[in-house]
């Protein structure tokens, strides 16, 4: 295998947490120019560790980690590993989620960031070894508890923070059930919901309904919400 730089491995590990990343996101994560990021992505592609496609007419390249890339980083390809790559039906959700994750990771380098793909991998390994899971949250649904995974978790000093991004309007009952599960979880220190302008009104209504009974952490409700628009801070 050709020469890999430390930043290549850093990027590969981070990319493996998400369905895909674009060049500008890789550049922001690495703290380099898009030209440099594109050069490193080409090097990873030559080694078969990432692949690329141009899904839309804007000609923007979309990269994701191959099975060989996952094996290189993890040592093995996990059983039932999810298919990586862009899903057109949720492309904007996944793209904006990566923007949020990159911004968080850059601003908070002392946190360990986990995407849903990595959380599922870690918990699957725990189940296989008869150990307690780390990330799944129990949510009440149709008369029974089901495991759900957030869009992102950030861990520091044993404390876990959850971030969710809602891109489209979600069913009120489902949203209330999930938000309540997060609020009542002893394994989650705090939760931040971001929502697009389309999804925010419904999120806000559910939040206001639950607010009187939400736990207080650090002087504010354990669950926080914020409208997120591209280009906003």
Descriptive keywords:
233 residues; 5-stranded mixed sheet; 8 helices; 22% strand; globular
How much strand?
15-25%
Order of helices and strands: HEHHEEHHEHEEEEHEHEEE
Helix content: 25-40%
Number of helices: 8
Overall mean pLDDT: 91
In total, the number of strands is 12
Shape: globular
Which sheet architecture does the biggest sheet show? 5 strands, mixed
Task: Compute the CA-based radius of gyration.
Answer: 18 Å
**Largest beta sheet: strand ordering:** 4-7-8-9-12
Distance between the termini: 40 Å
The unreliable regions are: none
Tell me the layout of helices and strands.
Blueprint: H1 6-15, E1 21-22, H2 23-30, H3 34-46, E2 50-53, E3 62-65, H4 67-74, H5 91-107, E4 112-115, H6 116-128, E5 137-141, E6 144-148, E7 152-156, E8 159-166, H7 172-184, E9 190-195, H8 200-210, E10 216-217, E11 220-221, E12 223-227
Parallel strand pairs: 8-9, 9-12
Antiparallel strand pairs: 1-3, 2-3, 4-7, 5-6, 7-8, 10-11
Helix pairs in contact: 2-3, 2-5, 7-8
